[in-house]
Design goal:
The protein is α+β, with helices and mostly antiparallel strands. It has 22 helices and 17 strands. The chain has a six-stranded antiparallel beta barrel with strand order 8-12-13-14-16-15. A four-stranded parallel β-sheet has the order 2-1-3-4, sandwiched between helices. A two-stranded antiparallel ribbon has the order 5-17. A hairpin with a 7-residue loop joins β13 and β14. It is elongated, with a radius of gyration of 28 Å.
């Protein structure tokens, strides 16, 4: 609870502040981080991630700052192609028109400070001063850069970028550090020589180093389900070329080698052909085994910090709202994985990072502080107290922005707008550890106009089903006084439904049970292992008209059917927009990742599939980034 915030604050100071940090401080932090690696996950994962950043900054001073700024500002060069984009999707059910306008103005204030040439000059000064230390003539360097034309500035900026990238590739050896310093010395001398006539010999005083510029943020209301897919596709395909054969060969994973070496014999599997015909062309796509297996690599049960990420684009998607927007995000996430499993379009180039800022549209009541619609935000806050302190508390500030917007001059950024923007940037830069919220697949069999149809959906937190005929009885019964309940001579329970489920147990043995309770409604809530211990499970509550006869069970798989020609009304994730009526049957089970269906894509024997399944997490989850994360 104390060390993790200190680590994130240190990391943020390194990339945000222009101050020089003594090497002795780096060394002390490095020694401390080495000791923290013995802690269990997720603390060791945070320590290892910070350790790598600190080690890089010690060896290649200025590299952490330069790479972060270039990616966020999309300063694309031939030596550095990493790009980032921030999308903030707000739920229209929570954001009124005044609140939308206020938040948009607060987040898009960063565009006022965007100036690529100025950013490049600040980057060069920062890197040269960090790498050369006292040998860097900062004042004269700033004068020289201001005197040079844009073409020369761009030329020297490319050299600085190349020097940093070469240093990163060469590693942490002493010779690599010395070579990096020598390259910076040559660049420093060339810049001063090129503009020596415009440089004043008088001391111009200290040169202030600008703080890290905020990334460009695209804010929009999430009105259409296809909005997220369109945003990601446009961002990725606008500046990414399609995969080449060389890239496909380089990215072959351990899974593919496993399938080649230890799978079925030649009679079961056709021989491997030359990959040349499998080139992905602009108008004639053809999926390869490597492409499909790249989806599975993300699900291998290995620490994320140990995986090398070769994707050149990062999309940081921030959703704002309550449980309803996370339900919508879970559906969009599954849709993206399903599309990618059929035709790989984004995953090989795009690193998708998901963030959540809880915002309510009503004032919390004393009985229900979160309004009943922030259960997942409360879970994330319990898992990560630093998230609870910084992000959960941000929702109240955002809700009040609409009333304060008119008090400020829009031409100048207010302190509150910078606070919101800076907190969001802190979350984006330091919230690197995911909490995986399990998704559940639900199949709804409906009866409409004498025809039976099925709807496949997904939910992440909540499913509520009730029998409309008993809704008014339950509402009237709950309003009765306790004295009147005692005098009631007739007990009302509800309608008979059939229930078949697999009971969860500590021994993890599956016990299939069946019941036919009388109920007027069913409430199913997700209980992730992140907030409890052991496995993920669902809590199923059967509500009777008489609350004294309510029952609960715990399960991962359940089937509910109606009898007596009755139907159910089903609402997913507390969202009235996702309500289904005339439902006769509900089938719920953990949602499987479409990209991890091995046998449907390869000639894999059942024994080999079971062996590989030990290392492959087939359940689809919604990875929401926090500061510490949790192993689930």
């Amino acid at each position: 609870m104390h060390i993790i915030p200190i680590l994130h604050t240190l990391y943020y100071t390194v990339i945000q502040s222009g101050s020089m940090i003594p090497i002795s401080v780096y060394q002390r932090v490095y020694e401390c981080l080495m000791k923290l690696l013995m802690l269990p996950r997720p603390h060791s994962a945070v320590a290892l991630s910070t350790l790598r950043s600190i080690k890089m900054e010690m060896t290649i001073p200025g590299s952490l700052y330069q790479r972060r700024v270039m990616a966020e500002q999309n300063l694309n060069t031939k030596h550095f192609t990493l790009q980032e984009k921030v999308f903030v999707l707000a739920d229209p059910a929570v954001f009124s028109a005044p609140l939308e306008a206020a938040v948009r103005a607060h987040l898009e204030v960063c565009s006022l400070f965007r100036d690529a040439p100025t950013t490049e000059k600040h980057l060069m000064i920062r890197v040269l001063r960090a790498g050369l230390g006292t040998a860097c003539q900062t004042c004269r360097l700033a004068q020289a850069l201001e005197a040079l034309g844009d073409e020369l500035v761009e030329k020297y900026f490319e050299k600085v970028v190349l020097a940093v990238e070469q240093g990163v590739k060469q590693g942490t050896a002493y010779a690599a550090c010395a070579a990096y310093r020598n390259r910076l010395q040559h660049i420093h001398r060339d810049i001063l020589t090129a503009a020596k006539e415009e440089i004043s010999e008088t001391d111009c005083g200290p040169v202030s180093s600008a703080a890290t510029s905020s990334p460009e943020i695209k804010f929009l209301l999430w009105k259409d389900d296809e909005d997220l897919w369109n945003l990601l596709t446009n961002f990725t395909l606008r500046s990414c070329s399609y995969s080449s054969v060389d890239e496909q060969e380089e990215d072959k994973s351990g899974i593919e080698r496993y399938l080649k070496e230890s799978d079925c014999d030649d009679t079961e599997r056709p021989p491997v052909r030359d990959p040349a015909p499998a080139v992905m062309r602009r108008n004639a796509f053809k999926n390869t085994k490597t492409e499909i297996l790249s989806l599975m690599m993300e699900k291998i049960k290995v620490s994320p910090v140990l995986k090398e990420d070769r994707r050149c684009h990062t999309a940081r998607v921030v959703v704002m709202g309550d449980d309803r927007v996370l339900g919508r995000l879970s559906r969009a996430h599954r849709s993206i994985r399903k599309r990618e499993s059929k035709h790989l379009k984004l995953s090989r180039k795009l690193n998708l990072q998901l963030y959540y800022i809880p915002v309510m549209d009503v004032e919390p009541s004393p009985r229900s502080p979160d309004g009943g619609r922030l259960s997942l935000a409360s879970l994330l806050g319990r898992v990560d107290p630093w998230y609870n302190c910084n992000i959960n508390s941000l929702g109240a500030t955002i809700s009040k922005l609409a009333g304060k917007q008119q008090r400020h001059d829009h031409s100048q950024p207010s302190g509150e707008s910078l606070f919101l923007l800076d907190t969001l940037c802190y979350y984006l830069r330091c919230g690197t550890q995911p909490v995986n919220l399990p998704l559940y697949s639900v199949k709804l069999t409906r009866s409409t106009c004498d025809e039976t149809s099925a709807v496949e959906e997904v939910f992440v937190s909540h499913l509520e089903a009730d029998i409309p005929e008993f809704r008014h009885l339950k509402e009237g019964f709950t309003k009765e006084r306790s004295e009147q309940r005692k005098k009631a001579t007739v007990e009302m329970f509800g309608a008979v439904i059939t229930v078949s489920y697999t009971k969860t147990s500590l021994s993890k043995r599956e016990v299939v049970k069946g019941e036919a309770p009388m109920t007027c409604g069913v409430v199913i809530t997700s209980e992730p292992a992140a907030g409890t211990t052991g496995e993920n499970f669902l809590t199923v509550s059967f509500d009777s008209v008489n609350p004294g006869h309510n029952t609960k069970i715990q399960t991962q798989n359940i089937t509910i059917g109606t009898m007596e020609h009755r139907t159910l009304s089903v609402c997913l994730d507390k969202d009235p927009r996702r309500t289904y009526t005339d439902v006769q049957r509900i089938e719920i089970c953990p949602c499987l990742d479409p990209g991890c269906n091995i046998r449907s894509r390869f000639s894999v024997s059942k024994e080999r599939e079971l062996t590989l399944s030990k290392y492959l997490d087939k359940v689809l989850s919604l990875p929401i980034n926090t500061f510490t994360g949790v192993a689930v």
